[in-house]
Design a protein that fits this description.
Layout: E1 3-4, H1 10-16, E2 20-21, H2 30-39, H3 49-66, H4 73-86, E3 90-94, E4 97-101, H5 106-112, E5 120-123, H6 128-131, H7 134-180, H8 185-236, H9 242-276, H10 284-292, H11 296-311, H12 317-335, H13 339-360, E6 374-378, H14 393-409, E7 416-420, E8 428-433, E9 436-442, E10 448-451, E11 463-466, E12 473-477, H15 482-487, E13 491-493, H16 495-509, H17 511-514, H18 517-530, H19 532-541, H20 544-556, H21 564-574, H22 581-591, H23 593-597, E14 605-611, H24 613-629, H25 641-660, E15 666-669, H26 674-684, E16 689-692, E17 701-708
Parallel strand pairs: 6-7, 14-15, 14-17, 15-16
Antiparallel strand pairs: 1-5, 2-3, 3-4, 4-5, 6-8, 8-9, 10-12, 10-13, 11-12
Helix pairs in contact: 3-9, 4-9, 5-8, 5-9, 7-8, 7-9, 8-9, 11-12, 14-16, 18-19, 19-21, 20-22, 21-22, 25-26
InterPro entries: FHIPEP_1, FHIPEP_3, FHIPEP_4, FHIPEP_CS, T3SS_FHIPEP
Membrane topology: Multi-pass membrane protein
Main location: membrane
């Protein structure tokens, strides 16, 4: 421990300073040390070697942290200079004791007070011959002067040169951005200040590196002065033998050299950190913390090193054990961090990088995503339905749906794209038409749908629900219950078929919207291969815009375009009379009346509902008056709101009555009323088919089930 000691003469000094060595006083005792030296030159108080070493280590960290910001270069060098000056105290170690000389010029103490006993003594836990030797001083000199200082000086020179050479280009780039309107005047001034500050910083560091190197050289010169001058003074002034003078003053010089080189090495290292660090917007403290704490393995390694040092004889056991435990606990806590946080951080970094890369790309037609006509998005639990290893059940059924719809309507349905969508619920799917969501549903991915029929008896255990396509009540059962459900009369449908049925229903209702000019081209190419002359006449009679309206009107009412030859023949003939797409579609329906009525005929009998005479006459007068007042489309004739409400109530009733009787819902009306009532039927009673009197073939027997009033 540190204690006061009185002067006892030169002989005592020789024994005490036999293996002398120099260390630095900690900053916390500088003021107390200074005041005691002024008053009595015999400071009081105690300090242990372990405490002394820990404070020196903390001072080193302070120097590095000061160097973390380029704006604090002056503060850094000032602090380093104060540290170097206040650490010019020295102590000697001999047989387990070390003596510290008070604050003052170390050179003067060695040269003029070398024969006096030092005022302070420190008990050292181990021999100085083991801890430090003469080779340590040479090692510090070599590392500081040749490695650290020389490298930092060279790097600062190159950095300053490159920075100054790049200044004109940076200034021109700022002016170019300002002229292009990318930045305003205030931003340009800020950038110019940043460029000037950067140049000033590297220029100052170039000069400061010379001071750093000079500090190292000065330490070597002081060492030579102490060595040569001390030996000479010991021989000629104090009449010491050459061997005694050399031994005493060399050991003291080595100690002073160590004291001078420790702060000098810290100063050089901190300067090297500044000049070798890549310039960015962060500070070095954040970088060090991030890199040291990035992985628990770093802390585990430090824990092991601290523990090994704790068990070394002569080392302070308690501090190293505490640090080892603290680092081990911190590493353990870091290893227990949830992996989800790391995954989220990576996803955010990926998203940020993607946004950055996207923002740097030029906007062009290629960067605008295309809208797909038909697409099906699946939740991640439904992705297994398109897995090749499981036979692609959904893909096969979707392909079948596309084929059936294309065959029935006479036009090629666009390809149905299937993709995974993480925004959906796990068991949810969504159907998109032209990029807009048409419908969605959520089904149990691992269950089967049991649909009751007229032959079903009993109830099966499962989850009650509704059919996504038609809303019928169903029961979702486990795959192991399939045989039981079939025996009970249920229709068992797998998830792939459920989704395909829903897609079939939605796509059929959007076929007119999916039909476009390219489909007309393909349809006419097909016509050209069968009737080239007819195809030419049709193209001459009607343009694509008129044909698109006619074809869409037919598809809206469920008329197939397979018989394109008949359709083209009628359009060529009727186009000489009218270009109205509703009238042209009516002529086509008349020509295709047998194929239109065929689905509703049972044993050459057609069961229908009609309008009563009063309602028929009323609607006929409304249509005639509208046409006399001006040109009005037959499907857009204005009707009294009260009559519209009656249609809204009675049309669904007609549909349900005919379905309850086992008949297809068909409403038979006059030709001039069919477009208007067909539109109302689609709005109020989907599935109710509206036919005109002319569209019923002569060979069919007509059976009237009732009249709509």
């Amino acid at each position: 421990m540190l204690s006061s000691e009185s002067n006892t003469g030169a002989s005592s000094t020789s024994s005490v300073l036999k293996n002398g060595i120099i260390f630095a006083l900690p900053r916390s005792n500088i003021l107390r040390f200074w005041s005691s030296l002024i008053s009595t030159r015999n400071p009081c108080g105690t300090i242990s070697i372990s405490r002394f070493a820990s404070i020196c280590a903390s001072r080193a960290m302070v120097l590095i942290l000061v160097a973390s910001s380029p704006s604090s270069v002056a503060d850094f060098f000032f602090s380093s200079a104060v540290f170097s000056l206040t650490s010019r105290a020295f102590f000697s170690v001999s047989s387990g004791t070390a003596t510290v000389a008070g604050f003052g010029g170390c050179v003067g103490l060695i040269l003029f007070n070398g024969d006096s006993p030092p005022p302070l003594k420190i008990d050292c836990p181990c021999s100085a011959a083991i801890m430090l030797s003469r080779s340590d001083l040479l090692t510090l000199f070599t590392i500081n002067f040749i490695v650290v200082t020389k490298g930092a000086e060279r790097i600062s020179e190159v950095s300053a040169r490159f920075t100054l050479d790049a200044m004109p280009g940076k200034q021109m780039a700022i002016d170019a951005d300002l002229n292009a309107g990318l930045i305003n005047q205030a931003q340009a001034q800020t950038r110019r200040k940043d460029v000037a500050s950067e140049a000033d910083f590297y220029g100052a560091m170039d000069g400061a590196s010379k001071f750093v190197r000079g500090d190292a050289i000065a330490g070597m010169m002081i060492l030579a002065i102490n060595l040569i001058g001390g030996v000479c003074i010991g021989i000629f002034k104090y009449n010491l033998s050459a061997d005694a003078a050399f031994q005493q003053y060399v050991l003291m010089t080595i100690g002073d050299g160590l004291v001078a080189q420790i702060p000098s090495l810290l100063l050089s290292t901190a300067a090297a950190i500044i000049v070798t660090r890549v310039s960015d917007n962060g500070d070095i403290a954040h970088d060090v913390r991030h890199q040291l704490l990035a992985s628990p393995s770093v802390l585990y390694t430090a824990t092991g090193i601290m523990f090994v040092l704790a068990v070394v004889p002569g080392m302070p056991h308690l501090p190293f054990l505490l640090f080892s435990a603290l680092l081990g606990f911190t590493g353990w806590r870091m290893s227990k961090r949830p992996q989800a946080a790391e995954a989220e951080e990576k996803s955010l970094e990926t998203l940020t990088r993607t946004i950055t890369e996207t923002s740097e790309q030029q906007v062009s037609w290629e960067t605008i995503p295309l809208i797909e006509p038909i697409s099906l998005s699946l939740g991640y639990k439904l992705v297994a339905l398109v897995d090749k290893a499981q036979g692609n059940p959904l893909t096969q059924r979707i392909r079948g749906v596309r084929q059936v719809i294309s065959d029935g309507n006479g036009v090629l349905l666009p390809e149905i794209r299937i993709r995974e969508n993480f925004r959906l619920k796990p068991s949810q799917y969504a159907i998109f038409i032209n990029g807009i969501k048409a419908d969605e549903a959520d089904i149990p991915a691992d269950k089967l749908m049991a649909l009751p029929s007229s032959e079903t008896y009993g109830e099966i255990d499962g989850v009650l629900g509704n059919d996504p396509a038609y809303g019928m009540p169903v029961t979702w059962i486990q795959p192991t219950q399939k045989a039981k459900a079939l025996n009970m009369g249920y229709q068992v449908i797998d998830s792939a078929s459920v989704i395909a049925t829903h897609v079939n229903k939605i796509v059929r209702s959007y076929i007119p919207d999916l039909f476009n000019y390219d489909d007309i081209t393909q349809l006419h190419n097909r016509l050209s291969s069968m009737a080239p002359r007819l195809s030419e006449d049709l193209s001459a009679a009607l343009n694509y815009s008129q044909l698109l309206k006619v074809y869409r009107a037919l598809l809206t009412e469920g008329v197939s375009l397979r018989d394109i030859v008949t359709i083209a023949t009628v359009l060529v003939a009727s186009s000489t009379v009218t270009k109205d797409h509703i009238l042209l579609a009516a002529d086509v329906r008349l020509a295709l009346r047998r194929s239109i009525t065929h689905p509703f005929v049972r044993k050459q009998e057609l069961t229908v509902y009609t309008l009563n005479n009063e309602l028929e006459n009323l609607l006929t007068n409304v249509v005639n008056q509208a046409q006399q007042a001006g040109k009005v489309m037959l499907d857009s004739v204005p009707v009294d709101p009260n009559m519209l409400n009656q249609f809204q109530n009675t049309m669904p009733q007609v549909k349900e009555q005919m379905k309850a009787a086992g008949k297809d819902p068909v409403l038979l009306v006059p030709p001039q009323l069919r477009p208007l009532l067909a539109r109302y039927a689609k709005l109020f009673a989907p599935g109710l088919h509206v036919l005109s009197y002319n569209e019923v073939p002569d060979e069919l027997e007509l059976k009237i089930m009732g009249a709509l009033s």
